[in-house]
Amino acid sequence: MAWSIAEVARMSGVTSRTLRHYDEIGLLPPAWSGSNGHRYYEEADLLRLQQILLMRELDLGLREIQAVLDSQAGQVAVLREHHQRLLAERDRLETLARTVGRTIAELEEGKDDNDMVKINRPENLFEGFEPARSEAAAEVQERWPRAWDQAQQVIGTMSAEDMERWQREVTAQMIRIAEFMVAGTPVADPAVQAEVDAHYQGVCRFWTPNAVAYKGLGQTYVDDPRFRTNYDKIADGLAVYQRDAMVVYADARLS
């Protein structure tokens, strides 16, 4: 039995765009393609995709995943190793659950006479957390490794205060873009494009994308669930509006 790329995307939650990218880099070629160019996947391909997603959950990069899948290790041995890592991740999530539960208890019970909350040990708020890398970040690392390395070097020089300031700036800019969207301002409007230029200059602090890369970054805002959620928390449809504005900017200024 074979499944189309659309069916695999629906079953797995992986976008068709990502599946095409996996094919392009040789990570997950389809079993065959129809005369119309549509990709079709068989059971062995679905099992391979499961392994890819398991390793992505464990924050392995695409090159690392490729190396593992191309090794001579048996499928059961590889899955057993994934299973052990997942058990470790389960333990981490249980720690996070305890952290949140403890915070809830302190918020409910720790108010003083002025109705202010007192946290007994602030460091306990962060037990179990660790940096996470999104699918979009992994894709950027795979497609533009030099840009990724450059960005990581810049981030490594930033203090906690620098990061917090940058995050506030990014959020404020997202809100300004959302205001244009809600007002019905076309993405090609000069005022919107001025905000996109500020966005592009902000990106250039970390790496300098060309037109194709900048459009790709905008597309990740739509395709990657974590990016899209962050944008759409501010206003429904903001991720798509931002992407469309970035496309106009890339065509006009970067091509």
From TrEMBL:
Residues 2-71 form the HTH merR-type domain. The lineage of its organism: Bacteria, Bacillati, Actinomycetota, Actinomycetes, Kitasatosporales. It comes from Streptomyces halobius. It holds the Pfam family MerR_1. InterPro entries: DNA-bd_dom_put_sf (IPR009061), MerR-type_HTH_dom (IPR000551), MerR_fam (IPR047057), TipA-like_antibiotic-bd (IPR036244), TipAS_dom (IPR012925). CDD domains: HTH_TipAL-Mta. Keywords: Activator, DNA-binding, Transcription, Transcription regulation. It comes from the Bacteria. Transmembrane segments: none annotated. This is MerR family transcriptional regulator.
